[in-house]
Amino acid sequence: MSAGPSRAPGGGLLVAGTTSDAGKSVVTAGICRWLVRRGVKVAPFKAQNMSLNSFVTREGAEIGRAQAMQAQAARVEPSVLMNPVLLKPGSDRSSQVVLMGKPVGELSARGYHGGRQEALLGTVLDCLAELRGTYDAVICEGAGSPAEINLRRTDIVNMGIARGARLPVLVVGDIDRGGVFASFFGTVALLSREDQELVAGFLVNKFRGDVSLLEPGIDMLHGLTGRRTYGILPFRHGLGIDEEDGLAMSSRGSIRASEVSEVSGVSSPVGEDILRVAVCAVPLMSNFTDLDALAAEPGVVVRFVDRAEELADADLVVVPGTRGTVRALEWLRRRGLADALARRAAEGRPVLGICGGFQLLGAHIEDEVESGAGAVDGLGLLPVRVRFAREKTLARPVGEALGERVEGYEIHHGVARVTGGEPFLDGCRVGEVWGTHWHGSLESDGFRRAFLREVAAAAGRRFVPAPDTSFAGLREEQLDRLGDLIEEHADTDALWRLIESGAPAGLPFIPPGAPV
């Protein structure tokens, strides 16, 4: 596509994957950014998202952070229509169901897949239809794999939505994991004839090396499936923005200043101290994307920890949000982290609690909603009493702290009553212990720099925040890099034909177990 496609209202595409974490979210964002740069009015969509990272839209609805990021890639305001169903895990077997931006209850996996999910198909199709009636193109993201044959009957996010809306399907595979050709072939072969008719082809993600070495396999895959490969995207560092899964933080490890510099092109300040941030990797961690803005600051090193000794050399310890405040509190005590936090507070060393982390730093918690634990003593580091309400607070507050304007968003059942201390973003501060319900506050550049100056002073560091780091600007650069990946390494003319006209007719059926 050279000068940009003609307008085609209602065009659509489903980006599916051979596995979870194959790259569906970033590919969807990349396609959105590529299209909007070509003058296409585009929106993202994910019928059902399972994530502990969420966001609040301007209409006060809770959606997945990934869809908010994709909306930013498309340069449109996030809407609940873009993610009508959000599942927030509370354990291995149950999740809070958020429907059209509001929580409607807790369901076990069996209860959800046993009937509730199937009943939601009409809702998600209506949302998709409304988006397609408004935008030139809607780029939909699947979940997991479309070949989850045990869940196909109640599927509303992969082939269920593709069949219901007649969307062409592009299957993304992560070649860095290995086995991508088997995954592509197996994904198609496990689908019914009607589902296979919509699978147009494949997109290879995270390739390292000489593309010419891969081409014989691409040709063989076409011969086996009758489906083409629409692009081979090279491996790039630093593109996993706003990940969905807060349950797999062990794979995230440390966010090092050097890595952020490689991505952003910003170097750490010469001759200044590095500021070290330790994040307590509490169970059911939510909105760990709050820490991305700290990691984007040159000279700041962020790492996730689960042992008390790992707090010893930290200049700042963050207790992040969690979907299980009481469970996280018990975990901190069991691992000795609670005592380590108390020692830090007594020594005047900085601690920041965000949302659930703020709640457990308080003196007392009454929870008959999230855990059913009733009255529980908190860590007692802040003069706060928390009572869990059945109605969830969803808000987009704006305020001021440390002389700087701050924007954030709130997602919590806990209602905090502050009985002392210094006011801080609707929470409080006592000494060097800070607490707030506001997610996203560190994305406000002036406030982040002012906060880091306070932390550095308390820690005795010579760290000076970079005066011109713009988190929003860095995010835009990342989204542009995603758009560049699509534009430079995918067959964009063929992709547009898919979006505009649907899957090619006459794609062959591959029976399960077909000889190869």
From TrEMBL:
The active site is at residues 355, 439. It holds the Pfam family CbiA. It comes from the Bacteria. The keyword Oxidoreductase does not apply. InterPro entries: Class_I_gatase-like, CobQ/CobB/MinD/ParA_Nub-bd_dom, CobQ_GATase1, CobQ_N, CobQ_synth, GATase_3, P-loop_NTPase. GO terms for molecular function: ABC-type vitamin B12 transporter activity; catalytic activity. Pathway: Cofactor biosynthesis; adenosylcobalamin biosynthesis. Residues 14-241 form the CobQ/CobB/MinD/ParA nucleotide binding domain. GO terms for biological process: cobalamin biosynthetic process. CDD domains: CobQ_N (cd05389), GATase1_CobQ (cd01750). Residues 276-445 form the CobB/CobQ-like glutamine amidotransferase domain. Keywords: Cobalamin biosynthesis, Glutamine amidotransferase. Catalyzes amidations at positions B, D, E, and G on adenosylcobyrinic A,C-diamide. NH(2) groups are provided by glutamine, and one molecule of ATP is hydrogenolyzed for each amidation. Belongs to the CobB/CobQ family. CobQ subfamily. PANTHER family: COBYRIC ACID SYNTHASE, DETHIOBIOTIN SYNTHETASE. This is Cobyric acid synthase.
